[in-house]
Amino acid sequence: MLLVLSEDHKEHLSFLTKADGSVVEEFGRLALEFLRKGTNPKIYEGAARKLCVPVGMVQHGVEGLMFLMTESSKHMISEVDFMDSVLALGFGEELIQSLLQLYVQHKHQIRSILSQLLCNQPAYHNLEWRLDVQLASRSVRHQMVPMVTIRLLLTRSSDVGSTQSCMDLQTDPSSLLHMISTLEAALAAVKTSDARRILRNIK
Amino acid sequence: MELSESVQKGLQLLADQSAVNHSSFQVLLDVSFRGLLSSRADPTVLDQPELKHMDRILLKQSHAALTTFILEAVKHNADKSTISSCFEELTFSTDRIEIFFSTYQKHKKDMEHLLSSMGRRPPHINDVSWRLQYHMKNGQLDKINEPFYLISLNTENEGSSEDINFTCTTEQLQDLVSKLKDAAKSVEKASQM
């Protein structure tokens, strides 16, 4: 699959096609830093002064590279397709190679950063348990009630980062056994031939 | 079993067979148990025809004492000898004690259930449901192609139920199940000790 970039985009990146390898590498590094931590306008000013170009051009260049990287990672573009798309933008052989290196090395990282953008449901993190026996309470003495106390830790990621929540729950031995058998059936479901066929064929 | 003075006095009123005959005693017993076990308060609980001849204040006193005694007996899981000795000290006749004890036995299990359900505890997991889905793509990423589970724990806390929903991958579900199995194994080991 070839990347199709808008005209504005091509224009933003055109300034980079004429720059030399070290500049492109530097911009690539900046782009990834910004993807990880957010943009920093001061760095744009510093780079603009060093290269004697307007700040806007530096900003567009870095943002253009950022978008190129995120779109390629999003669609998991193959190396060949990546090189062809970059060639179509007017980059030379050397620059294509260094951009490809950048893409290949950081593809998975970028994908995991992108996956954090999703406001998704709470996800399982960990489960701690404890076996207790209730001996008495305020209303009844002389009890012998076994119970399993469970601490369920969940994480939820949103645009402000990930938050952990923990909840304390309780169950009795028979409910525990019922839970185990139900969840074992769930685990078996992914191994059935139907499921395997779907996992194989939808790629 | 320790009984306060007012409870002792209230019960003693019921020991006198001329003031309270056997049928009135039985009715008062039934009414007391019913009042404890029913979920709604009934202001007309003492308006029984067999109890009409009793003085209202003494009736209320003995009803309160009887109810307190029943609760204490269930709380401490009192056996027949304990109950009998309590009543004997209050000058109850043997057959009256017998009437009390047989009614007590009839309602004991329900009373125990009622008392043990009182109190604060963490939400109780009753059931778990699951759903297996295949994640293909989303707004941010293409070609994810991973199966994942949606698990829903149905919990109950003091009558109100709540569902706890979360997602997990196959590995995480395996981790969850193995931890639960550890817990079940330790329950089994403890029960064999």
How would you explain this protein's 3D organization?
The complex is a heterodimer of chains A (203) and B (193). Chain A is an alpha+beta fold and 203 residues long. Chain A has 2 domains: 7-117, no CATH class; 120-171, no CATH class. Chain A contains 8 helices and 3 strands; from the N terminus they run ααααααβββαα. A 3-stranded antiparallel sheet of chain A has the order 1-2-3. In chain A, α1 (7-17) packs across α4, α2 crosses α4 and α3 crosses α4. The longest helix of chain A is centred in the middle third of the chain and has 23 residues, at 93-115. Chain A is elongated, with a radius of gyration of 27 Å. Chain B has 193 residues and is α+β, with helices and mostly antiparallel strands. Chain B has 2 domains: 5-117, no CATH class; 122-171, no CATH class. In chain B, 52% of the residues lie in helices and 17% in strands. Chain B is built from 6 helices and 3 strands; from the N terminus they run αααααβββα. Chain B has a 3-stranded antiparallel sheet with strand order 1-2-3. In chain B, a hairpin with a 2-residue loop joins β2 and β3 (160-168). In chain B, α2 (22-37) packs across α3 and α2 packs parallel to α5 (94-116). The longest helix of chain B is centred in the middle third of the chain and has 23 residues, at 94-116. Chain B is elongated. Chain B starts with a helix and ends with a helix. The mean pLDDT of chain B is 89. Chain B: Residues 124-191 form the COMM domain. Chain B: This is COMM domain-containing protein 3. Chain B: It comes from Poecilia reticulata (Guppy).
Secondary-structure blueprint of this entry?
The complex is a heterodimer of chains A (203) and B (193).
Chain A lengths: L6 H11 L3 H17 L3 H11 L3 H21 L3 H10 L4 H23 L7 E12 L10 E14 L2 E11 L1 H17 L3 H9 L2
Antiparallel strand pairs in A: 1-2, 2-3
Helix pairs in contact in A: 1-4, 2-4, 2-6, 3-4, 4-6, 5-6
Chain B lengths: L4 H8 L9 H16 L18 H20 L4 H10 L4 H23 L7 E12 L10 E12 L2 E9 L1 H23 L1
Antiparallel strand pairs in B: 1-2, 2-3
Helix pairs in contact in B: 1-3, 2-3, 2-5, 3-5
